[in-house]
Known about the structure:
Elements: H1 2-22, E1 27-34, H2 38-43, H3 53-59, E2 61-67, H4 75-84, H5 88-91, E3 97-100, E4 105-108, E5 117-118, H6 134-141, E6 148-152, H7 155-162, E7 168-172, E8 179-182, H8 190-196, H9 202-205, E9 210-211, E10 234-235, H10 243-247, H11 251-267, E11 277-284, H12 296-322, E12 327-333, E13 353-354, H13 356-371, E14 377-381, E15 384-387, H14 389-394, H15 399-410, E16 416-421, H16 422-427, H17 432-439, E17 449-453, E18 458-459, E19 480-484, E20 490-497, H18 501-509
Parallel strand pairs: 1-11, 1-12, 2-20, 6-7, 6-11, 13-18
Antiparallel strand pairs: 2-19, 3-4, 5-8, 7-8, 9-10, 12-19, 14-15, 15-17, 16-17
Amino acid sequence: MIRFLSSILALFSVTTFYAQQNNIPKLVVGITIDQLRGDYLESFKKNFGEKGFKKLLNEGVVYNQMVYNFPAPDKASAIATIYTGTVPFYHGIVNDTKVSGDDFSEVPSFSDSNYMGNFTSEKLSPLPLKVSTITDELKIASNGKANVFAFSPDASSALASGGHVASGAFWVENYSGRWATTTFYTSYHSFVDQYNRSDESLNARINSLVWKPKLPIASYNAFPYTQNLYNFQHKLGTNKTNRFILLKQTPFINEEVRKMGVKTIENAALGTKEYPDFLALSFYAGNFDDALDKNYSIEIQDTYQRLDNDIAQIIDAVDRAVGLDNALIFVVSTGYFDEQEVYPTDARLPGGDFKPDRCEALLNMYLMAIYGRENWIKKYHNEQIYFDRKLIEDKGIDYREFQEKAADFLIQFSGVQDVVTSYQMLHGAYNEAIQVYKNGFHRDITGDLFIELQPGWRIVSPKKLTNHERVRANSMAAPAIFFGNNLKPQKVSRVIDATEIAPSVTHRLRIRAPNASTSKILQELL
């Protein structure tokens, strides 16, 4: 009897093992959407088709609220977090740009002078990403045989999602509109090169591209407080200096990413070989032109409407290639929202203007009065103060005391809620607020002081083209959706962390999580 039970258990174990193996997706499609809002998905749903967002929301595992547990995520830091399963403290991408060199200049976070660009003059590589990614681990597990491709409007999201061992990671170059990459990746893909030189390329089509509403504007009525509906028309080829930068803020960039995604599925025969393949795509769902525009409510609805069609075409291409049960598609928002706010001229609301250049000048004068007439501040960047650490060391000044005196001075500024020093983050007593700042800190990149501004205050800088953004402490709904691979449809209301995405995806692939990922697997995906 015992032998019989043992045989049954052994058979069950083997059967379970093979069932798990057979459930491994042949193709994973990771879709990150910059500034995607969950409430907009619900508000605009009536205009969507049945095969895009509606299909994902109705048939997927839908997490309504995902958070990033570090300050001020942007597309670079958010997508790096999604693919590494850890925070900037470990992965090293704290912002789309970073302060670098003896001159404290601002450069792209993925800047790397050791590698040239293809179809771009930028010198970039994924090496500034200091830990492994989902895509790296898939390449390692398959002994390099899995195909990994990434396509994105911008270099930072392409490199963060493609990882260190990608078959190819491509982005749209700001001044030519062609798909660019870095010589860090050694594989050659003729279909991308042929597209760049064809009449299909953005460079060949830019002068004919005009963004107008896809639907009658009366259909775009999701915002209850919109008083007037105006038609809009943006001719993207007229601005010769930054026309491709503007294009990246329109639905045409999503169409371009989608086209390359479908071409890659077909040309690289993704999902048809022995090992799973991975396609990483990044889309945009934010504002147009980074300026105040009376048509914001119409434009954002049109952006989502067109993006819904792009998502539907990706799902359809995956279904044709491998079948949806053999694929895992996940859709994740970057979680931050750079929205346009127009305040009534007679409104007397709390808040004011915080001017970084004035803050920097007054702080330096204060430090001069204490420590001598020197330029103690090297840079103000991304609400951080960078000190001249070499000067402080040469003068024999206690670095911790220097930081504390500067922080005590800054906390008196109007609009400043808190100031956290880098010493506090690395050596100070623990509290929850400091831990959040520490998550977004990296000793080789970030500054000496972190300034938290009060909600309602506006950061006004002469370096910005516009200064409409105001500080908000509250968050909007950032969704995460998993679809396909025999997952049962569910709506999950609990809050999840962005670091849980990577280990959950690698679990479905039956491979190791990225090497800095310590978060648990989402229980609905077990």
